Amino acid sequence: MRFTISEIASATGGEVFGRDVPVDGVTIDSRLVRPGELFVPIVAERDGHDYIGAALQAGAAGYLTSGPIEAATAILVGDTSAALTAVGVHARSRLPDRVVAITGSVGKTSVKDLLAAVTAPTWRTTASVGSFNNELGVPLTLANATDETEVAIVEMGARGRGHVTALCDVARPTVGVVTVVAGVHLEQFHTLDGVAAAKAELVRALPASGTAVLNADDERVAAMASATEATVVSFGVRGGDVRAEGIALDSDLQARFTLRSPWGSAPVRLAVAGEHQVTNALGAA
């Protein structure tokens, strides 16, 4: 997405030092800077401010900073991580209301990739890169959407209660897909019900005009239907509005089946291996 430095400064409450130049996209990794991007130095195990010089040498058009002001164009902010979130919120305001968020203990990335493959022939689609699903990845996905994006697909992970809610505050999804609740990160959530409560934050965040897409084969996910005023569409191998019949695997373990739904039926052959991908494909359908 193309911004001006003054636009970014307004969104973040920052102060501009240097020229008001355009920037095209955002990155937090100085090794991956493309010419014209905005570099955001994150303070974590390493201090990203130490790599501002490398980012500028790689062609960054400007950078955020909460510390030193080096050459070129800078925006001084109080906290670069919070400023990145603000950039994501601003980028979301420039996108249409066709934003899909996907969460769940497993299958998020597969559903995201399958959904992007389904939507791309019809709508200009932007999707999370890899597993960019946290407080850094979600705003980066939004900020790096093309200006022509018609569908944005964001993956949402959670390391604790409230994390998905915070990501929804940035992405404001209109469609939410929940894949499955499983015993992942129990050190944070303690019980499967705790995991379910965290994933249900996506469903609760949807507007009444939105759509919740829920796995009917997982009782904890199916129960999330009561947590939203949005329209609910269920999917599953054993049941649901969108379901698979006649599942068969070929010699490459790629599934073929007939997809049944209230909107019609269609034969499907997956290009990815594994019977578990059938459920992921139904969630994307």
Describe this protein's structure:
The chain is an alpha/beta fold. It folds into two domains: 2-88, Udp-n-acetylmuramoylalanyl-d-glutamate--2,6- Diaminopimelate Ligase, Chain: A, domain 1; 95-284, UDP-N-acetylmuramoyl-L-alanine:D-glutamate ligase, CATH 3.40.1190.10. Helix content is 31%, strand content 26%. It contains ten helices and 16 strands. The chain has helices spanning 5-12, 52-57, 80-93, 108-119, 137-143, 163-171, 186-189, 192-205, 219-222, 276-284, and strands at residues 2-4, 15-17, 22-24, 26-27, 38-39, 62-65, 73-76, 99-103, 125-127, 151-155, 175-178, 211-215, 231-236, 242-249, 254-261, 264-273. It has a nine-stranded mixed β-sheet with strand order 9-10-8-11-12-13-14-15-16, with helices on both faces. The chain has a five-stranded mixed β-sheet with strand order 2-7-6-5-4. α9 links the parallel β12 and β13. The protein starts with a strand and ends with a helix. The model has no long low-confidence stretch (mean pLDDT 93).
Topology:
Blueprint lengths: L1 E3 H8 L2 E3 L4 E3 L1 E2 L10 E2 L12 H6 L4 E4 L7 E4 L3 H14 L5 E5 L4 H12 L5 E3 L9 H7 L7 E5 L7 H9 L3 E4 L7 H4 L2 H14 L5 E5 L3 H4 L8 E6 L5 E8 L4 E8 L2 E10 L2 H9 L1
Parallel strand pairs: 4-5, 5-6, 6-7, 8-10, 8-11, 9-10, 11-12, 12-13, 13-14
Antiparallel strand pairs: 1-3, 2-7, 14-15, 15-16
